[in-house]
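Let's practice the habit of predicting before peeking. Look at the sequence and jot down your guess about where helices and strands might fall. Then scroll down.
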Amino acid sequence: MEINKIDEFIYEISPESNKLMKVSARFFADPKQIPLIQNDDSLKQLVNVATLPGIFGFSLAMPDIHQGYGFPIGGVAAFDVEDGIISPGGVGYDINCGIRLNITNWKKKEIQKHLKEIVNEIYSIIPLGTGKGALIKLSNKEFEKLLFEGANWALENGFATESDIECIEDKGKLPVDNLAGISERAFERGITEIGSLGSGNHFIEIGYVSNIFEPEIAEKLGLFKDQVVIWIHTGSRGFGHQICADYVKDFQSASKKYGIELVDRGLACAPFSSNEGKSYYNAMNAAANFAFVNRQLIANKIKEIFLRFTKKIKPLHFALLYDLAHNIAKIEKHKVGNKKRTLIVHRKGATRAFPSTSLKGIYASIGQPVLVPGSMGTSSFVLIAQPNSLNLSFGSSCHGAGRTMSRSQAKKEINSKTLLGELESQGIIVKTPSISSLSEEAPTAL
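Done guessing? Here is the structure:
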């Protein structure tokens, strides 16, 4: 396929490359990334997305693009709500996998000698790894209430504050009309995993602010040099995974029913306006609400752990800077040409990045914080969305470090025990139930 350079960091594959494409496939990258991106099928997947019904603008990919299931990870695609589709593959198996950044008033030097003890407490208390494990036990009725109310449930039950809710994307609650489209198996998995981290690339990280590039904005965000911060990366656990698995299967037949020709089974979809489309949308939103609460519960427990150390360190101020999703499909209004259109915007491994003009509340004056976590051995970044993001990417940005090699390749080429030693030599404390899988998330693999 022919790749055309549109701007310094914008590349495009035109519909001339594939007669089934309805729009161009566009991606953002540093020129040095192009050979790496071409190492897998992510660009082919990006082109495939451009063949789907009702797609608007472009099939898009962020700089952390890599091969996924059906849609590439790092992909963004917007579809008309009346004539377009919704696709589980465009959201991903971990619905509302997202990132959260909590900030404190503690400094690196104040916590340093207590860090190992704090890390050990977090590791022993927060359920992690595959399978069951929850911070709280709920009745079926209360669990259903949580799925409808999202972060508001956490507020009502003493696990969140009003200021927390203000700093969560969409205030931590997406609309759910009913739970009829969620399987019994999904409920079984979800109720035993609420308040758990999971496995894979999910993490809790205690870090500190090493550099500030925009002092005025940093001050408004409550950030300062050497400040201790906490990153939490997890999503909807087995609950969201089961919902995605159920609908990927169901949508194979739904695609045929509605005469949608698929160039890849991973693109299985249904018209957004159909009963099947609405059913998935409700189930997906319920999983998103689960994930918002999941991260909130983990953060609240970490706050409790930190509070135990106040006599050894100093009184604690613990606040949420922002919490946002990067696996989701959302109804949004965007200007396409000269008209505002209502679209269902899929972001898979991509995060919302809305400028100040599109926001209400606490960040309306500066724009939405965009959280981009790095690897275990590299820095993470707090960015601020700029106005042109709406024109370029439907208000979207990258969600993390991306990958330069597959997980299986990383396991073959990187020795986990050697990696652990290298990280410890840099003063990085790592706790994991599976040392063998550490290489999958090595800095050199991302």
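How did you do? The mean pLDDT is 94.
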